[in-house]
TrEMBL record:
Protein name as annotated: Tyrosine-type recombinase/integrase
Pfam hit, one: Phage_integrase
Residue stretches making up the Core-binding (CB) domain: 13-94
Organism: Blautia stercoris
DNA-binding found in the keyword field: yes
SUPFAM superfamilies assigned to the protein according to its UniProt record, in alphabetical order: DNA breaking-rejoining enzymes (SSF56349)
Domain of life: Bacteria
CDD domains according to UniProt: DNA_BRE_C (cd00397)
InterPro entries documented for this protein: CB (IPR044068), DNA_brk_join_enz (IPR011010), Integrase-like_cat_sf (IPR013762), Integrase_catalytic (IPR002104), Tyrosine_recombinase_XerCD (IPR050090)
Database matches in PANTHER family: PHAGE INTEGRASE-RELATED, TYROSINE RECOMBINASE XERC
Residue ranges occupied by any Tyr recombinase domain in the UniProt entry: 122-296
């Protein structure tokens, strides 16, 4: 959206104030960035203020999204994400009409489409981004748990892969950090935001062969991660999502940013002294880096 549209359609004084309050409860910038991107896309479609959204606008927008699904341009999960976020914003405005002095006839027209998109979400087995945000907040007190959740959501690693990780599996090249995952044929690029979290965790942990270990110093098993997810989803006050659902959200997000199915399939398939460094050398295969670069969302270290 150009500067003129950005100002007139989204950041007009009235909507700017509403938006500021709406996103203030998002502790992790993943959620705010995703909501903002999808809201601006909708505003580019309607070419008017969000506060002027009509039932016809939503109907036409949804019809176009469905057309893109039918033509294989979008995944159903991507459309579910967009509608859920737009509904959340619109519902917030409707619930706070009096506070923001919004006209009485303002309505949330996205709510009618929730039954449709919930079917999409069930099919995708993914976790809504607002629930991921709550899960990360709940895990802030345990850096190891926070790292595991980040690897599930941002890297798409399985529980089996996570428990086998060792610090030596991370390698720093001139063009970024790559992860050699046991039993995978190809390495994966580690986004900078994810590596910062891992690097801080590595600086705090006790020396151990495995990246993650329990209080006895032995490596974790998949049951530990399953119990971990149950504990922290309960603390977050969200449904009891599995690690696999959180992992699926990684693919969901890549699809949302137009990664191709074969690219997503490929991606799903420490202190500096603890990691081997290759000076003056670029990792030759940059495909993984390019795919990860599609995703605009970032993971933040816990506060």
């Amino acid at each position: 959206m150009d500067n003129k549209n950005d100002k007139n359609h989204f950041f007009d004084p009235e909507m700017q104030s509403i938006w500021k309050h709406f996103v203030s409860h998002f502790r992790n910038q993943n959620s705010a960035a995703s909501y903002r991107s999808d809201t601006i896309e909708f505003l580019e479609f309607t070419e008017k203020s969000f506060l002027e959204t009509t039932a016809s606008d939503v109907e036409n927008y949804y019809a176009i999204q469905q057309k893109k699904i039918n033509e294989k341009e979008l995944q159903p999960s991507t459309v579910a994400k967009k509608i859920r976020e737009l509904n959340s914003l619109s519902a917030y405005i409707e619930e706070n009409k009096e506070y923001y002095h919004i006209k009485d006839n303002y309505q949330n027209h996205f709510a009618a489409y929730l039954p449709h998109i919930e079917k999409m979400s069930k099919f995708a087995h993914s976790v809504p981004i607002e629930d991921i945000d709550k899960l990360l907040i709940a895990a802030q007190s345990d850096y190891m748990v926070y790292c595991i959740i980040t690897l599930l959501y941002r890297m798409g690693l399985s529980s089996t892969e996570i428990v086998e990780l060792m610090p030596e599996h991370f390698t720093i090249y001139d063009n970024g950090v790559y992860l050699r995952i046991p039993k995978r044929r190809e390495t994966c690029f580690v986004p900078e935001d994810v590596y910062k979290i891992i690097e801080k965790y590595l600086s705090q942990r006790i020396e151990n062969k495995y990246l993650f270990y329990n209080s006895r110093g032995t490596k974790l098993n998949t049951m530990y991660i399953s119990r971990m997810m149950k504990k922290y989803t309960t603390l977050a006050g969200i449904p009891s999502y599995s690690a696999e659902s959180l992992r699926n959200s990684c693919a969901y997000t890549m699809f949302a940013y137009d990664a191709k199915p074969e690219q997503v399939a490929r991606e799903m398939g420490v202190t500096e002294s603890q990691i081997r460094r290759y000076k003056n050398m670029n990792y030759m295969d940059t495909t993984s880096r390019a795919i990860r670069g599609l995703v605009k969302l970032k993971a933040e270290p816990p506060e």
